[in-house]
Design brief:
The protein is mainly alpha-helical and about 250 residues long. Helix content is about 80%, strand content about 0%.
Length: about 250
């Protein structure tokens, strides 16, 4: 298996969890507190993965300067894009309640939600592709962490979209499209950045980490804590611990 194909494959696998979560959210009556708990666990998993896998790898490749600049840059880019999309109707794209606007309430919000979903998933996928550069093997911990976190993302988003009156075709088409884009982004992460220096690769990995952390803070964790209240801290810690153990066993 070529490295480029391997990158695309693992990007597809990680992204496919969004579709699984969307199916569960649309077809099954999942209690909102259960959704919150799953999102809290997924958030803990991602925090651990970006701290002990992505950031550690970025530092190993490029040191403090490239890693710090990339990390801050990823957060700034994501925050700016998210702010812009929030003003176009995509602020609550991952919420499972009645917060999402319908197209009638906010024309153009459907397009904003699509774009928002893409910027949520692309940094994760690029990080998967970058991990294969220099003959390395894919980061199992990162793939598993992204997979586990994507399930509650798809779950919560599809419930909210259904409540907002969006059709099954829209919901499943959106998530299926993101799966394809995830595979393409992982492929690009390997094919494009393999030609750059170690500092650029390090900064790119850190950009992905910064974008993921900003995404967690802006979209996933608010949903988890609003619906789950006091137990979400414990569930998040359990997710963090699970990914931490996986990272160490994989290393």
């Amino acid at each position: 298996m070529s490295k480029a194909f391997e990158a695309a494959f693992w990007g597809f696998v990680a992204g496919a969890a969004l579709l699984l979560g969307a199916g569960a959210g649309y077809l099954a009556p999942v209690p909102r507190r259960v959704v919150a708990a799953i999102m809290g666990f997924g958030g803990g998993v991602l925090i651990s993965a970006l701290a002990f896998d992505l950031m550690d790898e970025a530092y190993r490749r490029g040191g403090f300067d490239s890693t710090s600049l990339g990390f801050l840059g990823g957060a700034v880019i994501y925050t700016a894009a998210n702010w812009l999309l929030a003003h176009r109707g995509a602020k609550h794209r991952k919420r499972s309640g009645d917060q999402q606007p319908s197209e009638k309430d906010h024309p153009g919000s459907g397009t904003a939600i699509v774009v928002g979903a893409l910027i949520d998933g692309i940094p994760e996928s690029i990080a998967i592709g970058v991990s294969l550069i220099s003959g390395g093997s894919v980061s199992v911990a990162a793939v598993v962490a992204i997979f586990l976190s994507n399930i509650p993302e798809g779950l919560s988003a599809s419930i909210g979209m259904k409540r907002a009156g969006r059709s099954a075709r829209y919901i499943f088409g959106l998530h299926a499209g993101i799966v394809v884009v995830s595979a393409a982004a992982a492929l690009a992460g390997y094919a494009v950045f393999s030609h750059f220096s170690r500092d650029v690769i390090a900064a790119t990995t850190a950009v992905a980490a910064g974008g993921i952390l900003a995404m967690l803070s802006d979209t996933m964790m608010p949903e988890a804590f609003e619906e789950g209240h006091n137990m979400i801290g414990l569930v998040t810690v359990l997710g963090f611990l699970a990914a931490f153990v996986l990272t160490k066993l994989g290393g």
